[in-house]
Design brief:
By secondary structure, this protein is of the alpha+beta class. The protein contains 18 helices and 23 strands. It has three domains: 235 residues, BirA Bifunctional Protein, domain 2 (2-Layer Sandwich), CATH 3.30.930.10; 105 residues, no CATH class; 115 residues, Anticodon-binding domain (Rossmann fold), CATH 3.40.50.800. The strands form seven sheets. It has a seven-stranded mixed sheet with strand order 3-9-10-16-13-12-11, with helices on both faces. The protein is globular and about 75 Å long. The protein binds glycyl-adenosine-5'-phosphate (GAP).
């Protein structure tokens, strides 16, 4: 996927009502976006797929919806007031600010891209006899590149974990990393910036600073006792939640990839101490399955172990997707130990434990977390789905090949002409189908143009009502991906559409 493709994704998202810049008529607000009429439908469907797969398909996972505002001490206990910051560096010539660790990771990515090129070249050369596993452990260039990547990892980790930020700057200088804008290597020192937004809770009280949550997870931790007691769940069990989070991302870039206001879908899985690594592996595999179940090529995804662990984690891995700007995190799976519950226990003075009947003892559960950004997932799907099909004879079509179960509209209802009773019959069909599906009604322009517009927003099925439909009570349906058309009875429509767009079928793939 190229930068060019990414530009197309951004302009397509705007042109077809998926994503708009926030407050655009006021020239926009950097790194804040609004979802349009089609975007909100896609976003709702992604959320539904996530929620059903986590909550509905797991009898030991329940959901909650906690508030964005929380008692300010929550963020002291969680470590966010003191530790939720990014190491930033400024380029003195362009005046642009970057995350220092990301600059270094981008540098490493160039070596990974080189490795991929070596593999592709060898694949072509050796054809069917090519053994990739063997090749990557024997090819001299790949071995050299991997050695460089690993050596940088060690130094980056050392700098980040010790807090000796001058080590990071030295690494940037040594690797001769230059500013992507000015091209110069004229850097400031590396400094830490806290990412939390704060506001005032009341207008009268003096000391009333309150934070906008930077992760939804804490709403789950502070409700652990409430939910465990009222749901009567036994370990291991999970609490899931979707909702907005806010981060003052200094370097907001790449469209909805890094926003200041975004949505997370998180699940905290509470387990007995000592079982966390087993569950960490389980959720790692399960979450990757969730992604691949959407039909995306497996080569577009990979795991990436964290170099630097967050203050609460003893193991962490990202699920990364191959964006046009390289592999980047879509989801994180973290083994958070008992850090959060213990901290809240300490700050509140309240016992936050689990009584294990079998062991006849109380203890603080350990937590394995899965945390995915809804907006990033949206970007994955848009980037992966937007295609230009060659139709031959110099003709092309732009089509959004979204997983049918997630498409904003499941079908479009298109009377061939605006007269002769066709709109009336079309409206009747629409009224019935709308009870089950989100249907798009359109009678303007040629049928070809209308098909193209539906392709562009990813509608899996178009239904055309023509003059014969009045007498034979049949319509032509056209499938988005194959462009195949067939004549079917109006009565068959609900079953045919359901078969194509069924969330149930999608979820079944996870069993
Ligand atoms: N509770 C753990 C946690 O918040 P994280 O890795 O900081 O972990 C989880 O965030 C996910 O949230 C990321 O994998 C990403 O998809 C999404 N995310 C984080 N910051 C984001 C931002 N500024 N804009 C959009 N999505 C973001």
């Amino acid at each position: 996927m190229s930068e060019e493709h990414f530009k197309n994704v951004i302009s397509h998202a705007k042109e077809y009502g998926f994503v708009f810049l926030s407050s655009e008529i006021y020239d926009g607000l950097a790194a804040v976006y609004d979802y349009g009429q089609n975007g909100v439908e896609l976003k709702n469907k992604i959320r539904e797929y996530w929620w059903k797969s986590m909550v509905q398909l797991h009898e030991n996972i329940v959901g909650i919806d906690a508030s964005i505002f929380m008692a300010p001490d929550v963020w002291k206990a969680s470590g966010h007031v003191d530790g939720f910051s990014d190491p930033m560096i400024d380029n003195k010539d362009s005046k642009k600010r970057y995350r220092a660790d990301v600059l270094i990771e981008d540098y490493q990515e160039k070596y990974r891209v080189k490795n991929q090129k070596e593999i592709q070249k060898a694949k072509k050369r050796f054809g069917d006899t090519f053994d990739e596993a063997q090749f990557v452990v024997t090819n001299a260039n790949i071995l050299r590149n991997n050695k460089k990547i690993a050596a940088i990892d060690v130094r980056l980790k050392e700098g980040l974990e010790s807090g000796a930020l001058h080590l990071i700057k030295e690494l940037i200088e040594e690797l001769e990393i230059s500013c992507p804008v000015s091209g110069s290597k004229n850097w400031t020192d590396v400094r830490q910036f806290n990412l939390m937004y704060s506001t005032q809770m009341s207008a009268t009280d003096g000391d009333n600073k309150i934070y906008l949550r930077p992760e939804t997870a804490q709403g789950i931790f502070v409700n652990y006792l409430n939910v465990q007691k009222t749901s009567r769940q036994k370990l291991p069990f999970g609490i899931a939640q979707t909702g907005k989070a806010f981060r003052n991302e200094i370097v907001a870039r790449q469209f909805i990839m890094r926003m200041k206001e975004f949505e997370q879908m998180e699940m905290q899985f509470f387990v007995s101490p000592g079982e966390e690594m087993k569950w960490y592996d389980h959720w790692k595999q399960h979450r990757m399955k969730w992604h691949l179940n959407l039909g995306t090529q497996s080569s577009k995804y990979r795991f990436h172990d964290h170099v630097k662990l967050a203050h609460y984690a003893n193991a962490a891995v990202d699920i990364e997707y191959d964006f046009p700007f390289g592999f980047k995190e879509v989801e994180g799976i973290h083994s958070r130990t008992d850090f959060d519950l213990k901290q809240h226990e300490q700050y509140t003075g309240k016992k936050i434990q689990y009584f294990d009947n079998e062991k006849n003892e109380s203890y603080t559960p350990y937590v394995v977390e899965t945390s995915i950004g809804l907006d990033r997932m949206f970007l994955v799907l848009m980037s992966n789905a937007l295609q230009t099909d060659d139709l031959g004879e110099g003709q092309t079509r732009t089509v959004l090949k979204l997983p049918p179960a997630l498409a904003p509209y499941q079908c479009a209802i298109l009377p061939l002409v605006k007269k002769d009773g066709l709109p009336e019959l079309a409206r009747k069909i629409m009224a019935e189908l709308s009870l089950d599906f989100n249907c798009y009604y359109e009678e303007k322009d040629s049928i070809g143009k209308r098909y193209r517009r539906q392709d562009a927003i990813g509608t899996p099925i178009c239904i055309t009502i023509d003059h014969e439909s009045i007498t034979d009570q049949a319509v032509t349906i056209r499938f988005r991906d194959s462009m195949e058309q067939k004549r079917v009875s109006i009565l068959e429509l609900p079953a045919i559409i359901e078969q194509v767009v069924s969330m149930k079928t999608l979820l079944r793939g996870l069993l």
